[in-house]
């Protein structure tokens, strides 16, 4: 039984089909990579699943419930989390405070006197930081962190919403190769530990082939291949469109 069922999903911008009749499934405990050249429709797909963008046609079932037409904040509360390409942390707050803020937001607490309210979430926030190996840096302001560590804090913040499905659009953008491997390895561990589903995009094929359980390939809005690393790598259309061979 799949957690996410995307069926015949399309998005048109004017006459241009950014996403053209794609269908795929995602199970709990699965790390699914969405790959394809720039402009293939990856971010558009993320934005439709997350509710940031209305679809032109199709269906997105999450745990059997239709997501199309549901506002993004309701989708988040249904258990669909996401990380964004642009850093979403508050630079002047500490690592711990950022995660406390995410927990407050998830529990819909009022923001006045937030430091007092946040105290109730201190242990939970520290536990989330432990899960992303950032507990040692809890009291540092985010402005002092290395870029790769900011990404880990963002991951802890998205875990604060207890997502059953996490959408990660280019989570390793701007990171050095070693950091990329580290972050995706961490995500893979979390997928297994939490039986969480993750849909992610990643430019490094080495990282995708090393960690993804399954891969789907988009080109010009169309889904041209899906399967294991071996299956996708051997696909003639992928060779032609994606690797330019
Ligand atoms: P990817 O994330 O795979 O690089 P996108 O989903 O961002 O691709 O874009 C897919 C296509 O849709 C591109 O041709 C892009 O120019 C177009 N597109 C994306 N967003 C918009 C928009 N808001 N208005 C018009 N065209 C868009
Ligand atoms: Mg994109």
Q: Which tags fit this structure?
A:
Rossmann fold; binds magnesium ion; 245 residues; alpha/beta; 10 helices; four-stranded antiparallel β-sheet; 10 strands; six-stranded mixed β-sheet; binds adenosine-5'-diphosphate
Describe it for me?
Strand 4 and strand 5 form a beta hairpin. Helix 5 (122-131) crosses helix 6. The chain has helices spanning 42-50, 72-78, 95-106, 114-119, 122-131, 147-159, 177-194, 205-211, 229-234, 236-241; strands at residues 4-13, 16-26, 31-35, 57-62, 65-66, 80-83, 165-168, 197-200, 214-219, 222-227. The protein has 10 helices and 10 strands. It folds into 2 domains: 1-79 and 163-245, 3-Layer(aba) Sandwich (Rossmann fold); 89-162, no CATH class. A 6-stranded mixed sheet has the order 6-7-8-3-9-10, sandwiched between helices. A 4-stranded antiparallel sheet has the order 2-1-4-5, with helices on one face. Helix content is 38%, strand content 24%. It is of the alpha/beta class and 245 residues long.
List the helices and strands and how they pair.
Blueprint: E1 4-13, E2 16-26, E3 31-35, H1 42-50, E4 57-62, E5 65-66, H2 72-78, E6 80-83, H3 95-106, H4 114-119, H5 122-131, H6 147-159, E7 165-168, H7 177-194, E8 197-200, H8 205-211, E9 214-219, E10 222-227, H9 229-234, H10 236-241
Parallel strand pairs: 3-8, 3-9, 6-7, 7-8
Antiparallel strand pairs: 1-2, 1-4, 4-5, 9-10
Helix pairs in contact: 3-5, 3-6, 5-6
Bound molecules: adenosine-5'-diphosphate (ADP) and magnesium ion.
Magnesium ion is lined by residues 42-43.
